Amino acid sequence: xxxxxxxxxxxxxxLARQAKRCEKEEQKERLKLKKAIQQGNTExxxxxxxxxxxKKNESLNLIKLSSRIDAVASRxxxxxxxxxxxxxxxxxxxxxxxxxxxxxxxxxxxxMDKFESQFEDLDVQxxxxxxxxxxxxxxxxxxxxVDVLMQQVADEAGLELxxxxxxxxxxxxxPEDSELTERLAKLRNAS
Length: 191
Description:
mainly alpha
């Protein structure tokens, strides 16, 4: 199982490296695109833009795959850890059985102390693994950070695309549902 864990981690890192390589290639294609536009080479610019988009999509796919494999590796790590803890607890229980047979209070106390320390270690390891798995498998990010990043990218794209798009307007938001707004206001006032 440890070999599988190593292979999973190695594969995830390899995919992440390939994704970075694709990102660099995308940047090179973007520079070629910019140069072609400056030279007035529209056909070449289309080819470079197509290449840049393909490299970006390839990079995103590799990142997604790397993330999935990393999540599986975290689960395998948890299984390995749980197997080790189970073995330790089995040994402790055997020791407790022997201690109980002889009813040696000192021995019982030592075994119980060892059990408690291993149980605390298990809690720490489980907490760490749950945190790692939560971090590796969760796909949610704070909404305000997402909104800020989207706004930055839109602003940058707007500045670059403003000349090409002319007077094109941004799409307007959906109209508010007044009935829902009223119900929300009543709920707020009630509490």
